[in-house]
Each structure stands twice: as C-alpha cells, then as structure tokens.
Design goal:
Length: 75
C-alpha cells in the first residue's frame, strides 16, 4: 500500500446520500465515512438501504453516494 493510499484509508470525509426512500431522515443522509469508502449500508425499517459512491471528493468537503437498492434483514 502506498503512503497516499494509507492516508486515504484512514482519513474521514462527509458522505452525502442521494435518492432512496423519502422516509429516510435528513439526519441519516449525511454520514462520516472513510475517504476510500465505496459503499454505505443504512439500517431502515427492517432492512438496509444501500448507497454507492458516485464521485470523488467534491470541493474538498464531501463525497456523493447514490441509492442503489434495498435489502431485507434475513431471519
């Protein structure tokens, strides 16, 4: 692993979640994640909402993740 990859893996950034169910709260739509994160999974109403990274760091402030799918919790 290169030095810049190590820094990226340990640095945290703000993730902004776009799309998905309208019942997902505005508070849930901003998350702190690793700068190298590619996916985010949010528990929501007995399942999980999955978001995938769509961009690089925007204006040095945040990364956009777009809703991809919902999965149900297995029992």
């Amino acid at each position: 692993m290169r030095i810049d990859e190590e820094v990226s893996a340990t640095r945290t950034v703000l993730a902004v979640l776009e799309g998905g169910p309208t019942t997902l709260s505005e508070l849930s739509r901003t998350q702190t994640v690793s700068a190298s994160a590619e996916k985010i999974k949010i528990p929501h109403y007995g399942g999980y909402e999955h978001f995938v990274r769509t961009s690089e760091l925007q204006e040095n402030t945040h990364i956009v993740f777009r809703w991809r799918m919902r999965t149900e919790v297995a029992e």
